[in-house]
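I had to read the description of the data format several times before I understood it. In essence, backbone conformation is discretised, so a fold becomes a row of integers matching the chain in length. I therefore recommend that a typical entry be quoted early in the introduction. For illustration, here is how one protein appears when written out as sequence plus structure tokens.

***
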Amino acid sequence: MLDEIYKFIEEKYFTSGDFNGLPFHELLRGLDLGKVEVLAEIRIGIETDVLTIEHLGNPHIKSFADVKKDEMLEFLDESKGETNFCMYPHPKKLKTCATAETYRDTPFAYELAKGAGQLDFRAFELSTLEFYRNDPRYHYETNSIQGRICVTDEHFESEGMPEHDQVLLQGFGFAYDNDLNRYVGVILRYLNKLSPEHQRVWATKEVKKDEVWLHPEYFAMSFQGSWGTKLSIFDAFVQELDQINEMCERMGKPKLFRDSYCEERIRGFEFLLRPTKSELESFVHLLDKMMSDNISKDFFRGDLELERDVIRKSDGKVIVEPKGTIQLLDEWLRKFYTSAESENPVEELITTFRKIRKLRQEPAHRIGLDIFDQAIFKEQRSIIIDAYNAVRLLRMILASHPKVKVNPPQINDWLRDGKIWNF
């Protein structure tokens, strides 16, 4: 009898199109047996590693490969078939299943065919995403915690793009090992939707380590129904710029930053996909454009002299040259803001602005080979943390302005409290 039940389960698994389980009520309709007798056979099947059951969440998909036998048996005994559940072939049975072998050329479908869980994830080298990010035929979007990839409308179902390249990756996150090395994390359910060609490409980039875990925010949002607990540091950075500009308006002054970049995500403003010197230099160049180059001198007009007299070294003549934006910000803060703390935060934030400007200028004065080094990931993380802290300090300073204190702009609770994911 158990063999007959298993045949029903295996047939459903491979003909459903999505490796679905066989619902208990559907099994009952196909057998000329009573509920109690069938439940007894299912219990034996669980005990002897012939089948598994799912009853939580969406029971029609096998969520995770690791399902504890005692928990399945406890549910079966308590529910007595009154609560619907679905049955699946046990991975041990699928090891010798001929039908499963037909999926061998599609690596992640093959894993599901062999009994892996659809919500089990696999980790990959970050460079796997480069193909999609750099190809304008794809819409690549990420906030450095999670993201998605799809074909742009222009190329969807177009003759100029092969069908096997018209892929959709519904979602991906980022994963880490215990040294905070960064990877791409994708659940098998989404990997299975890739074309066979793309599945094989991803499989060559898979990272097989024991201690790799998903970003806590991505895990919570994907598996625990969370709406989020913190902001990514890149989202927080641009929101700080936006807050600063709103405070400037309340002060009756022009915006300090020409653009807050809140309306549209800036390409490249994210954690690196490849740890190379050239990638880091491109990021620093963009970051400086968003900070020092983004400062509007109109903000300082009427409060400071925008030019300065300089003695020319060549002939000793006095010439007039415009002041830099960092110098103007430094002068304005020191003129109008006095810290109640023993350590003035102005020094800290100005130092960071100058540090990032210097990092941007350095590559222009040297020619050298590109470098690939995993340590560059950590270097970039340190830079963006410093940059975020600098603009946050600036926002907190402007928040003490009398006109802002009586009419503060609305602020995201996470931004106000500094609840930020910095990895």
Observations:
- The chain has a mean pLDDT of 92.
- DSSP finds 18 helices and 14 strands in the chain.
- Residues 375-398 form the longest helix (24 residues).
- The CA atoms of residues 233 and 422 lie 5 Å apart.
